[in-house]
Design brief:
Low-confidence stretches: none
Strand content: under 5%
Order of helices and strands: H
Largest sheet: none
Shape: rod-shaped
Mean pLDDT: 91
Helix content: over 70%
């Protein structure tokens, strides 16, 4: 049987993986923004 009822389809698997990647990119973006913010504050104080 090619499509088992309990197994997600390839499209569902790809969608879930894409969501994970987007969440990781959002987290990375937040970290980059924090570093840039800290760096810009340090250079203004120097």
């Amino acid at each position: 049987m090619p499509n088992e009822p309990n197994r997600p389809s390839l499209l569902e698997e790809l969608d879930a993986k894409q969501n994970e990647v987007l969440e990781q990119l959002d987290a990375l973006n937040g970290r980059i923004e924090a570093v840039l913010r800290d760096w810009s504050q340090e250079t203004k104080g120097a």
